[in-house]
Amino acid sequence: MAAAAMRSDVHAQTETAPAAVNPVTAPSLAKVSLKVNGKACDLELDTRTTLLDALREHLHLTGSKKGCDQGQCGACTVMVNGRRINSCLTLAVMQQGSEVTTIEGLGTPENMHPMQEAFVKCDGYQCGYCTSGQICSAVAVLGEIKEGIPSHVTEDLMKPPSWDSSEIRERMSGNLCRCGAYSNIMEAITQVAGGRA
Amino acid sequence: MKPFTYERAESPAAAAGAAMRHPGAKFVAGGTNLLDLMKLEIEEPMHLIDVNGLQLDKIEPTPEGGLRIGALVRNTDLAADERVRRDYGVLSRALVAGASGQLRNMATTAGNLLQRTRCPYFYDTNQPCNKRLPGSGCSAVDGASRQLAIIGVSEACIATHPSDMAVALRVLDASVETILPDGTTRTIPIADFHRLPGDTPHLETVLQPGELITAVTLPKPLGGTHIYHKVRDRASYAFALVSIAAVIQRDGSGRVAVGGVAHKPWRVEAAEAELPRGAKAVTERLLADAKPTKDNAFKVKLVERVLGAVLAEAKGA
Amino acid sequence: MKFETPATTNPIDQLKVVGQPLDRVDGPLKTTGKAPYAYEQHEAAPNPAYGYVVGAAIGKGRISSMDLGQAKAAPGVLAIITAENAGKLDKGDHNTAKLLGGPEIQHYHQAIAVVVAETFEQARSAAQLVRVKYEAAKGSFDLASVKDSGKKPKEGFGGPPETAVGDFDKAFAAAPVQLDATYTTPDQSHAMIEPHATIAAWEGDKLTIWTSNQMVGWGVGDMAKTLGIQKENVRLISPFIGGGFGGKLFLRADALLAALGARAVKRPVKIALQRALMINNTTHRPATIQRIRLGATKDGQLSAIAHESWSGDLPGGEPETAVSQTRLLYAGANRLTAMRLAELDLPEGNAMRAPGEAPGMMALEIAVDEMAEKLGMDPVEFRILNDTQVDPEKPERPFSQRRLIECLRTGAEKFGWDKRNAKPGQTREGRWLMGMGVAAALRNNLVMKSAARVKLDKSGHITVETDMTDIGTGSYTVIAQTAAETLGVSLDKVTVRLGDSTFPVSCGSGGQWGGNSSSSGVYAACMKLRAAITLKTGLSATEAIFADGKVSAGGRSVSLAEAAGDKGLEVEDTMEYGDLDKKFQQSTFGAHYVEVAVDSFTGETRVRRMLAVCAAGRILNPKTARSQVIGAMTMGVGAALMEELKVDKKRGFFVNHDLASYEVPVHADIPHQEVIFLDETDPISSPLKAKGVGELGICGVGAAVANAIYNATGVRVRDYPITLDKLIDQLPAVA
């Protein structure tokens, strides 16, 4: 019985796929200009291209990672106009004129950002795949605390959020690390925050 | 993702007009849910109208003493607004209980209201789902339903609404302002904005095709203690199993809305009269017609206990 | 080099570089986004086409028809490969189900087609136009209901399917204190952040794949076998791997389909498995049902120990070897272990971090906690009382090192175990119920053959090449440390190149053998290079001292640069092992201490403190080793509190196939974690006197959390994960 029901269900799904829409519509192209890590970039892209794929596949800036392509892991975190976002959930064309900062824009192996140095020193990574997102997020988190943006663990909404570890942990929770480097990432961020707070 | 043409709208009227010219068009603002669904071809707009340039990103006082929140105000900015933190703490708390910092930087007030369910069968296009494909059946009723609804459900659908913000707006009696494709505007009380699934779970709100949200207004502040209590398996970055938005006054009276249990934020005004009698009494009224599955029956008890926590916190405040 | 007798003093013992908590050598690349992963080879494989995988929509059955017409006609589409047009394909030795299914469907989301197009957007869109009709067949999807049909599996990686010593039944019946309890662990997903991803390119009949794979040698072999080509014609490159945990041990669909796609379109093809496909398309840790019976004397001496485990897999698959640790962990004269394997039509089960021990310890170490309570004993003391220094099934076989007692005692002291109230449900902190839990940890130490090539150039620079992989474990770093120590140079004089099948075949990354075994292979090659250097310089091999970039003997010093000469020196060697692992039981040990807070209203559990004490031989790099342990502890918290692949028993698939619904721990779930390594060397393991540590860290963590929850609440949950719905009915009443 279950098998029969299953079969008809699957048929229903595949056969009633929207017939009204011509499935072979040609892609729509659009021009977009971005400023990526301070450099002007002019692209002509399929409108479906996400900012993440524009960075990785068109500009060959592969530091920003695709982990889920669904906004569920944080590996694609970049800063757009100074704010961190999931670059997999925005279209490149929606970012016309935006200033994008990726991990490559924070520092290089020869000239690292303090947060990058702290991650190395504290071993705040293992496989390295979530790392770019963690670091971009970490840099942004310190800015968000400074700006007074509250978080889920902020005790008093009318007082500036504190710099303690529970605040940072909560704010970093949109960046999964399956290797489980969390405790070390906290060390790294706390070190950098200590220097700035 | 199906190919689509793209335009940036310059004004709400222009956006509404564009929607009229392009049947099947979608508005995009934050994009955090829409793009995800477009990748899976659960949403298949042929034309995308980018409304990010509409200047609807202000939070302004209303003549009635409330606040008018532009549709495009980002979740981060709404949560951080001093007036919201001071007078509508439950809203600020609900916002920061949801999603992640990155997503809150993208997500807008209007988009948050229009989030679609996180029912796993809705997301899996191989599976029957009346919400995604009307008439195909509901896989969740006899499937994995731990996260899903316990009240206001139908045989066609047991999905929940995933928003935290909407639960707070419901307790605050917010209103949704819109513009229709013909240029007329209307105001919809939040209580009427989301629908129960019934036989048409694919219709989630009362918005008409091409209708654009321009603002959400909050009535004048209620005072009292504002609490948003969200329960989930992991400590952050997860949808609610159950959440409660509450505004409790010194005399023990107040308002309560529940998230994670229904197709819309769940509030039963009559149940609020029971608040002085405690969590059990309120829950009995609030969830009187609950029809949970075996997987999610625990939510009934959980609502009562979370409400207990909320009332204890209010008492201590 | 063959390692047949216990190690004596050797160059590694200098510990100038090895044993130091050095930063990872690949750190600057990884933290600046410059480390290239499989999908990121724009220079090596320019102008690629993009593949998008179509997964089967049913759990079991057949494809009755497939219509590719619309998909083929879609813009940008270059080719669509299905089982029908792929040509003859074999199945890899390490695969249970076919990587390209059809017409028979063996499991949900089994790949049935790949659409190759000019762009990613076009491939993704066209994949939705592949029209498939199925005939679903009735499958078996519920372990509990088919458990009793389970058969005795054949002997595999986890040892024999059954063992017995003494007379368990009699001893158990006679035991004054008994425990008989059943525990369950759910299916779990590796959920590594980098998806399975590959770029494939053909040059004539030679295939190169850049892929994310832990075991380069296995990948080459299975690709060649599946395609029916010579192994020599497959080159596999895997320099950086974005997490594996056992999920990337094998050739998977991304690699095979990229190879087939590239062959069809005659240009490079890149494929990353979409996240929603990963969980059902690839492998997972199988669920278990475990029955444990313990019998003890009134004073706490275990007299009878039985552990039986049931798991399921596709026909031809293997069991989850959840009883292995029970064969070794505690003394007891009468013992019995058994595994049964039932056939399930769910996706393929296979290894995930500490296969066997991870779920096995989750059950055993609750049982031990329960028994200690029945006896009225402290659970730390109960474990210590039942310690054994020999393999309890083969008493003539001692452990090479076993310092479990010291781990437990050290941990108890550092953690403040004496503050724990043995009576559960007594400690409150506001609305939180507080509790502490402990568990022992055991994970076997495996040693594997591993080869390396070492080159010395005219500037005195050393280059090490081996097909070993670094999956976040720190291979690049510990290998560089090993070479620097052995050859007497500083770390910056060593370059390590990994993950290329043109390099000598290593042990690969798995089973926590990678660090010790691959470094031992490098040690062997470096010792051979030392011999070549002394031979060339005419220095006495027995007296030669390698230090500061020079080799010195008999009052003469020659710089390595000089020794290398214009042509340089190059050697290759393999470390192989004798029978020391037969004569001695080699295991690693630890103790996990956890403090939890359980919300008395909601039953939400949050971990407050964690400590692991590990005895795992020489720690090659305390910084990277510590990271391995905290990472494993984090995964253990996930297993205890949230991770569960939800089975749709009607439709036959894992429902929560994304990272929002398969919850893994986030930052907010994990407190500061403490790790203590006992100062230990194990000369019986390898010349490095090291062992593995990356899997030890997860063994027992789940049970320590479970025991802490019990201590906090008085509620004993035997079914993982311990989510609030399993506690809520038994929590104190709310006012």
From TrEMBL, chain A:
UniProt enzyme class: oxidoreductase
| Record field: transmembrane | none
A Gene Ontology CC term for this entry? periplasmic space
Alphabetical keyword list? 2Fe-2S, Iron, Iron-sulfur, Metal-binding, Oxidoreductase, Periplasm, Signal
Gene3D superfamilies linked: 3.10.20.30, [2Fe-2S]-binding domain
Please state every residue range assigned to the domain named 2Fe-2S ferredoxin-type. 30-106
Which InterPro entries is this protein grouped with?
A: 2Fe-2S-bd (IPR002888), 2Fe-2S-bd_dom_sf (IPR036884), 2Fe-2S_ferredoxin-like_sf (IPR036010), 2Fe-2S_ferredoxin-type (IPR001041), 2Fe2S_fd_BS (IPR006058), Aldehyde_Oxdr_Iron-Sulfur (IPR052914), Beta-grasp_dom_sf (IPR012675)
Q: What is its EC number?
A: 1.2.99.6
Location in the cell:
Periplasm
Keyword flag Ligase:
no
What domain of life?
Bacteria
Explain the purpose of this protein.
Oxidizes aldehydes to the corresponding carboxylic acids with a preference for aromatic aldehydes. It might play a role in the detoxification of aldehydes to avoid cell damage.
The record's annotation in PANTHER family points to: ALDEHYDE OXIDOREDUCTASE IRON-SULFUR-BINDING SUBUNIT PAOA, OXIDOREDUCTASE, IRON-SULPHUR BINDING SUBUNIT-RELATED-RELATED
- Under what name is this protein listed? Aldehyde oxidoreductase iron-sulfur-binding subunit PaoA
TrEMBL record, chain B:
From the Swiss-Prot or TrEMBL record, give the protein name: Putative xanthine dehydrogenase YagS FAD-binding subunit
Q: Which Pfam families match?
A: FAD_binding_5
Q: FAD-binding PCMH-type domain: from which residue to which, for each copy?
A: 1-223
| GO MF annotation terms | FAD binding; oxidoreductase activity
Query: What InterPro entries does the record tag this protein with?
Result: CO_DH_flav_C (IPR005107), CO_DH_flav_C_dom_sf (IPR036683), Diverse_Substr_Oxidored (IPR051312), FAD-bd_PCMH (IPR016166), FAD-bd_PCMH-like_sf (IPR036318), FAD-bd_PCMH_sub1 (IPR016167), FAD-bd_PCMH_sub2 (IPR016169), Mopterin_DH_FAD-bd (IPR002346)
Q: Matching Gene3D superfamilies, A to Z?
A: 3.30.465.10, CO dehydrogenase flavoprotein, C-terminal domain (3.30.390.50), Uridine Diphospho-n-acetylenolpyruvylglucosamine Reductase, domain 2 (3.30.43.10)
For this UniProt record, the keywords arranged alphabetically read as follows: FAD, Flavoprotein
UniProtKB/TrEMBL annotation, chain C:
Q: Where is the Aldehyde oxidase/xanthine dehydrogenase a/b hammerhead domain?
A: 32-138
Question: In which domain of life is the source organism classified?
Answer: Bacteria
Query: SUPFAM superfamilies under this entry?
Result: CO dehydrogenase molybdoprotein N-domain-like, Molybdenum cofactor-binding domain
Q: What molecular functions are annotated in GO for this chain?
A: iron ion binding; oxidoreductase activity
Q: Which SMART domains match?
A: Ald_Xan_dh_C
Mind telling me what this protein is named?
A: Oxidoreductase
Task: Tell me what gene encodes this.
Answer: yagR
